[in-house]
Every structure is written in C-alpha cells, then in structure tokens.
Design brief:
Blueprint (H helix, E strand, L loop, with lengths): L5 H6 L6 E3 L3 E2 L3 E6 L5 H12 L5 E7 L4 H10 L10 E5 L9 H18 L3 E7 L12 H17 L3 E7 L20 E8 L2 E5 L12 E9 L2 E6 L3 H10 L9 H10 L6 H19 L1
Parallel strand pairs: 3-7, 3-8, 4-5, 4-6, 6-7
Antiparallel strand pairs: 1-2, 8-9, 9-10, 10-11
Length: about 290
C-alpha cells in the first residue's frame, strides 16, 4: 500500500511524454481494438520496432497469434531483415499461466524484471497480442477482467510499465472490444483502429482517462524504397505552429506566453492549435530528458 504524501504531491511536476507519435503515453495502459484482418498486429509490431530503438526502453512483445515465419516476413517488409533487436524481447506463444491468475502475473513480472536487469533498460513496454489469448476465463464475464486487473494490471502499474493490449472488435463497429465491457475498466486510452485502403485511423472516441490526448491519428502505410513505413499524417497548421514555437517553448512555457510570442511574430493562431503544439513540443522535451 502506498500512502499519498500531500506536500510532495503538490510540489511534484508531472510531465506527460509519448513513446510513439502522440498516442502511446509513457506509463499508461492502452487497448488497441480492431476487426480481424485490419492489421492491428502489423501496426503493433511497427510500434515495437520504433520504441525499442530507444536505448532506455525495453519492449516485451507477447505474441499468441503469429508464428516465426510470419514475424520474419513482416520485419522483412519493414526493411529490417537481419536486424538484431537488443531491446525487443519477442516471445512467440509464451508459456505462461493465464494472466488473470496470480501465478501467471508472477511469471510475467519475473520475466519483465529479468529482462530489465539483463538489458540495463529503465522503462518496460509490454505488448500483449491478444488479450483473449492470455486469459482462460469467460470473455463475456466482467469477473475475468477484474481478476486480470487485480493480478496483472496492478503489477504492471507498480512497475511503471507502458502497456498495449490488442483485442478484437465486437459485432457492432465502433463500440469497442468484443465481450465484457469490464475489459476497458483499467484502460487509460482505448484506441480503435480502422482501415480504408492504405490509410489507417486511430480514434479513442472519447474513451480516455487523461485530458489532452488527441482523439484521432491518421497514418498512411507507404512503400518507401521497397520498405513498408507507417507515416503519420499530421495537421499542417499544428506542424507549422510547432516550427514557429520550437525555439521558444521550454518545460515551463505557458499557453498564454506561447500565444503572445506568436502575436509578436504576427502569427495569429487558434488557442486549440497553440495548446496542441505546445503539448507536443513539451512531450518532445520530456522524451529527450528521460
């Protein structure tokens, strides 16, 4: 049990940082839900390869869906053939007890701690593909996912881990994961992934515990010199505002200060645009300081 130290709480400065674009928040639990064959595992693998490039981040990918040949094919399609990923620990069909049980949670915790110690990394990122494969309880029962949180979810929070849980969409499009609504009780950001052609959209549809996390992100899956790449399709106004503020914004810069600076440059911007630009710039600063 951890008792809140009130004076320390009020003195603490909490800075949000993102591990991938501005949608995967450090130290938070995310769900990634999509219909079958939309490409959530491919997208999650892309995220894993990008995050594991940071020497302080250790990605532990629990794959209960693909085989080794699938993994090799997908990494090759990213142009990563032959790469040794020191900070990506990829487990195919991991031999763990169900994660809603205390034994399974203990096994996962031991695995995470062992890999952190061996790698020297500071921050664990755990990707579970998919959540229905690591539980044996009834998928429509809220009790299954309450126990998943009590045994595994809390353990991961105490470790400070960033978590991405993949899941299948229910029968009603846009209504989240199939099965019990209790699946999302402990999720901080519930992303839904959809696809149209080669364009992918992430949308949390307001199911987000934190303020300020942009609801919608768009990515194009492009072929760049023979390699598949997910390219973020950003808001050009926000991006230009970030460029104008990049040399001005620091960790303590306020929105009002940023707006005043833009006015001095004769650059009028909507407040919502300035808020987003400042948030993204501060996230970049926080990530660089981690």
């Amino acid at each position: 049990m951890s008792l809140v130290d009130w004076p320390k709480l009020w003195q603490e400065e909490f800075t949000r940082s993102y591990l991938f674009e501005s949608c995967i928040v450090k130290g938070r639990t995310h769900s990634l839900v999509a219909r079958q064959k939309v490409g959530k595992s491919l997208f999650a693998l892309w995220i894993a390869t990008q995050v594991s490039a940071d020497p302080d981040k250790l990605v532990i990918y629990m794959d209960n869906e693909m085989g080794l040949s699938d993994l090799k094919e997908r990494l090759t399609s990213f142009g990563l053939e032959g790469r040794v990923f020191d900070n990506l620990k990829y487990y195919i069909w991991p031999d763990l007890q169900p994660l809603e049980e205390s034994e399974g949670a203990s096994q996962l915790e031991a695995l995470i701690r062992e890999n952190l110690l061996e790698s020297g990394c500071k921050h664990p990122v755990v990707i579970i593909d998919t959540v229905s494969r690591v539980t044996t309880g009834e998928e429509n029962s809220a009790d299954t996912f309450r126990r998943l949180y009590q045994n595994t979810g809390l353990m991961l929070k105490r470790l400070g881990a960033t978590v991405i849980r993949l899941d299948h969409q229910g029968k009603r499009a846009g209504k989240g994961a199939r099965g019990s609504s209790g699946k999302g009780d402990d999720v901080d950001v519930a992303w839904q992934l959809s696809k149209k052609g080669t364009t992918f959209e992430l949308d949390h549809k307001g199911v987000c515990r934190m303020s300020g996390v942009e609801q919608r992100h768009v990515f194009d899956l492009i072929n760049l010199e023979g390699c598949l790449v997910y390219r973020s399709v950003g808001d050009p106004v926000v991006e230009s505002t970030m460029a104008e503020l990049r040399t001005f914004v620091g960790p303590d810069t306020t929105i009002d200060q940023a707006q005043e600076y833009l006015r001095s440059l004769s650059r009028g911007r909507k407040r919502a645009t300035v808020v987003k630009a400042v948030q993204l710039l501060k996230s970049e600063i926080a990530s660089a300081l981690d």
